[in-house]
Design a protein that fits this description.
By secondary structure, the chain is of the alpha+beta class. It has five helices and 13 strands.
């Protein structure tokens, strides 16, 4: 009888250990998203960005990324350099205006923006959809996705890898990535396979075909309010 009791206790202990290990493993394993899932995460957290002339026509266009429910956003500085008036157009057609530049760094090519919350969103008590920001550095060969607006009503996603997490380009440290970038995607997000913002699209590298320049998260964080860092 005693031996049977010991055998039962031992079996229960082994089962509990297996269940504990399995549960811990599942909880600690980050979700890996494909391109479709990544697009769904980012679609409502970015916008088509227009810099307007005095006659209301666009002098330049790009993409913006929303970083908080309250409307803190970011883009590449060269998109908004010298801008007096800006507006954003969301995926659902909502126009966000006026957009203000709160801080920028021309060397890093980063600008932080403030978006006004539309009246309809205020009435419903809603905030903006936004992307969570990655804290650790990207790695060689890591899968990434680039998103943005090459056309007003057309946001696209491309897939690639990190070619270099730390390349010195014109005196600035940049991420190099092979996810394709088209004109108008500047300021858009580079997103890792776990759905986190891993960088901001800055442009293309003319000396290397299909290799593109990405602003690092540390350059963005250096301009953000303490609450978002």
């Amino acid at each position: 009888m005693k031996r049977n009791w010991l055998a039962v206790c031992l079996a229960c202990s082994v089962l509990a250990a297996v269940l504990f290990y399995t549960g811990t493993s599942s909880a600690d394993t980050p979700v890996v998203n494909n391109a479709e899932q990544t697009y769904q995460l980012a679609e409502n957290a970015m916008f088509y960005l227009r810099v307007l002339k005095s006659d209301g026509t666009a002098s330049s266009t790009g993409t913006g990324i929303i970083l908080s429910s309250g409307g803190t956003a970011a883009t590449a500085y060269h998109v908004v350099k010298g801008a007096e008036r800006m507006e954003g157009i969301m995926a659902d057609g909502t126009v966000i205006s006026p957009i203000k530049v709160t801080t920028f760094d021309e060397l890093k090519d980063v600008a932080v923006l403030a978006l006004p919350v539309p009246a309809a969103m205020k009435a419903k008590g809603n905030g903006f959809a936004y992307l969570s920001m990655r804290k650790d550095a990207v790695r060689h060969g890591e899968a990434v996705f680039a998103l943005g607006y090459p056309l007003k009503n057309t946001n696209i996603i491309t897939e690639g890898i990190v070619n270099s997490p730390d390349a010195e380009i014109n005196g600035r440290s940049r991420i190099l990535a092979s996810a394709q970038v088209a004109s108008g995607m500047s300021g858009g997000p580079l997103i890792d396979a776990h759905g986190q913002l891993a960088g901001i699209i800055s442009g293309s590298l003319r000396t290397m075909n299909n290799i593109h320049l990405i602003i690092k998260m540390e350059d963005l964080r250096s301009l953000l309010p303490a609450a978002l860092k």
